[in-house]
């Protein structure tokens, strides 16, 4: 018999309802041709990874989270939406992760802050559909009309007689009822749990160690692997000597392995052992000769010079040039942002178990469907036989949405014919890429006699997402309307008479990809700092200058609220106050940063005021936590770390050189959430872009010095 301390939470959840029939409501993605779902008659263990809601005959409700949980709160928010319409409280349900299954759940990517803004209506309908089926089942038992009944607190109640039946007593009959095609959803004023700051259900498990992250997952008979990868990314394995590595006790296999990065195959040498320690020691004894011919080995200085040249490649726009000449006054500036590593606190890792006709993986997976499809295609296994299990993620930031590390793990498992956990060391994680690309921005603009922006142009030079280009980009004419720049509020396109935007893709073999709030995380630094320069040119208050150009009612409300919460009117001539307002993934964010000089004369960040307008929202505590985390991450990217390259290799390899903000460096952060009836926007990413420009604008306000290059050091300002 198991002792109590050996009986895991996972075992309990799996076995708790084995004897009961379950009502499982699934919901097909619209492309399948079905607007609502199906009923599956099975026990909890069989349906655990296959559907949205499971209710066993004891009344136990399980709600499945179909998105990865990397700290952003889907584990709480998605079940909270369903539970609202299902009429159960959060303490009446258990939550489980769903495996990749696009036929049942639709797309499951965790990117673009899409989980709530893209799914809230469908999730509400799922809960309401299950509720109506249970009400119908109760009405049949009582011989009354369903309209005479209502659901509340996990039971159905008859209005006329106050009779009650719990969901567990109704589940068998409800499972025979065809799901209704149309259901009535609650009005926002009637919500009981949506919009409330409820405690997250995953917090306790993450504190006491019960939560299973990718690094925690183990399989019987599992081996461990680490890979010596080419530090120049594109190089091939010319030869390797594994004689000493194989002499390390526990080392079982050494062989070459590939991982696909945006269409290119990167090579390395895998060392597989019966323990992680043995694999790592074996790797240290490995001698690899690389073939690095056929591509450039670039330094950061060369990359910078190349981007600087690219800034001036576009052929000019005659219309914009004419508009700029008509401005009363104009200004030009160049802004620079660096390459960055993702550096999640949990390094990349993945378990793969590949058999002749099936693949199963476990790990911190951010994009389950894409990885499932990629594994199927590359290993020639039918997609129905590819199972992708998502553990908790210790951060993702876009890196763990990529397919390279699960495919690499699967190829190693296939080679050794055993389950294997492939571990990336911290050095691997920081130095192997793909990275966020560095960028340069050439900003030009002018103001008119009314002290408003008359003309604005922002041209950027950076690597586009991918492994790099092999051919020089042709110069392209900058047009007068290229659709905008990520991070810049949409109102500016209505209030600025003449604007143009463009990008020249810089060529480099260094692999680059998305990084939290892609595009906006660098664009906003240049655009919002330059807007501050235009406000100074026009001799206008920076916040009032923005108010004059952000003309919609929604933005006017945001500006008013931001001024109120920060007490903007209290600022004095010698204070250091900076503001930035950005738009990203359907949400609007305003931030005010206050800085001062301490007794040691060094710049100190006193406080950050952040205002999030994400429209309809689920849990304000999750929003506050995400905005705080975004600001801390933006602080690190502004003043702490950057990735540099020497002879084609990443220089920074661990936190001793790629330093993270320490807790004593974090300023006071005050987060507010706008209340309105707008459609939901994203939360996990939009909180990041505004911080860097607000900080640099505050430093200018205090010192008169413009910070146009990131990262910089506060002590040296």
Automatic annotation (TrEMBL):
Aldehyde oxidase/xanthine dehydrogenase a/b hammerhead domain sequence ranges: 208-294
Source organism, top-level taxon: Bacteria
GO terms of molecular function: oxidoreductase activity
Listed InterPro entries: Ald_Oxase/Xan_DH_a/b, AldOxase/xan_DH_MoCoBD1, AldOxase/xan_DH_MoCoBD2, AldOxase/xan_DH_Mopterin-bd_sf, N-heterocyclic_Hydroxylase, OxRdtase_Mopterin-bd_su_IorB, TAT_signal, TAT_signal_bac_arc
NCBIfam families, sorted: TAT_signal_seq (TIGR01409)
Protein name (Swiss-Prot/TrEMBL): Xanthine dehydrogenase
Organism: Niastella vici
């Amino acid at each position: 018999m198991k002792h109590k301390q050996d009986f895991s939470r996972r075992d309990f959840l799996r076995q708790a309802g084995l004897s009961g029939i379950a009502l499982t409501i699934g919901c097909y993605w619209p492309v399948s041709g079905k607007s609502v779902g199906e009923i599956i008659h099975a026990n909890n263990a069989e349906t655990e990874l296959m559907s949205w809601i499971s209710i066993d005959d004891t009344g136990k409700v399980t709600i499945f989270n179909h998105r990865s949980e990397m700290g952003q709160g889907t584990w709480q928010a998605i079940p909270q939406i369903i539970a609202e319409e299902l009429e159960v409280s959060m303490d009446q349900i258990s939550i489980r992760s769903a495996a990749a299954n696009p036929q049942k759940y639709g797309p499951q990517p965790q990117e673009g802050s899409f989980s709530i803004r893209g799914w809230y209506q469908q999730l509400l309908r799922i809960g309401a559909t299950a509720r109506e089926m249970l009400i119908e089942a109760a009405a049949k038992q009582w011989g009354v009309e369903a309209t005479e009944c209502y659901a509340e607190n996990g039971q159905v109640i008859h209005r006329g007689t106050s009779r009650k039946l719990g969901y567990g007593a109704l589940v068998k009959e409800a499972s025979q009822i065809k799901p209704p095609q149309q259901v009535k959803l609650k009005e926002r004023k009637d919500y009981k749990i949506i919009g409330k700051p409820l405690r997250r259900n995953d917090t306790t498990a993450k504190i006491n160690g019960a939560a299973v992250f990718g690094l925690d997952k183990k399989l019987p008979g599992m081996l461990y692997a680490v890979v010596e990868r080419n530090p120049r990314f594109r190089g091939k394995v010319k030869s390797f000597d594994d004689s000493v590595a194989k002499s390390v006790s526990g080392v079982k296999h050494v062989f070459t392995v590939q991982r696909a990065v945006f269409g290119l195959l990167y090579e390395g040498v895998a060392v597989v052992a019966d323990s992680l320690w043995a694999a790592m020691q074996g790797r240290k004894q490995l001698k690899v000769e690389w073939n690095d011919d056929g591509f450039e080995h670039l330094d950061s200085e060369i990359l910078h010079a190349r981007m600087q040249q690219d800034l001036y490649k576009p052929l000019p726009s005659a219309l914009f040039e004419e508009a700029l000449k008509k401005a009363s006054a104009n200004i030009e500036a160049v802004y620079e942002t660096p390459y960055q590593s993702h550096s999640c606190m949990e390094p990349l890792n993945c378990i793969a178990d590949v058999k002749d006709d099936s693949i199963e993986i476990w790990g911190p997976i951010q994009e389950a469907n894409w990885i499932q499809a990629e594994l199927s295609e590359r290993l020639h296994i039918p997609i129905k036989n590819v199972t992708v299990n998502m553990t908790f993620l210790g951060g993702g930031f876009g890196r763990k949405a990529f397919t390279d590390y699960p495919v690499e793990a699967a190829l190693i498992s296939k080679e050794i014919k055993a389950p294997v956990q492939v571990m990336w060391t911290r050095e691997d994680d920081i130095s192997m890429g793909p990275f966020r690309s560095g960028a340069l921005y050439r900003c030009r603009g002018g103001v008119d006699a009314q002290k408003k922006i008359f003309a604005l142009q922002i041209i950027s030079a950076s690597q586009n997402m991918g492994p790099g280009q092999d051919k020089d980009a042709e110069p392209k004419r900058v047009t007068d309307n290229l659709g905008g720049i990520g991070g810049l509020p949409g109102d500016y396109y209505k209030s600025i008479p003449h604007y143009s935007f463009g990008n020249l893709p810089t060529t480099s073999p260094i692999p680059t990809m998305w990084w939290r709030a892609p595009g906006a995380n660098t664009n906003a630094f240049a655009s919002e700092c330059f807007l501050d320069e235009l406000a100074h040119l026009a001799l206008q208050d920076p916040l009032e200058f923005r108010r004059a150009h952000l003309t919609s009612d929604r933005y006017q409300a945001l500006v008013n609220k931001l001024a109120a919460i920060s007490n903007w009117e209290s600022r004095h001539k010698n204070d250091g106050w900076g503001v930035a307002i950005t738009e990203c993934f359907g949400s609007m964010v305003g931030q005010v940063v206050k800085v001062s000089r301490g007794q040691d004369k060094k710049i100190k960040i006193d406080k950050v005021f952040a205002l999030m307008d994400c429209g309809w929202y689920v849990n304000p505590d999750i929003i506050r936590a995400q905005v705080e985390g975004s600001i801390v991450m933006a602080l690190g990217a502004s003043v702490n770390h950057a990735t540099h390259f020497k002879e084609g290799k990443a220089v920074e390899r661990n936190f001793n050189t790629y330093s993270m903000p320490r807790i004593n460096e974090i300023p006071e952060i005050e987060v507010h959430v706008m209340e309105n009836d707008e459609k939901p926007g994203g939360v996990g990413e939009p909180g990041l872009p505004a911080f860097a420009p607000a900080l640099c604008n505050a430093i200018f306000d205090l010192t008169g010095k413009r910070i146009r290059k990131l990262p910089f050091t506060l002590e040296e300002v």
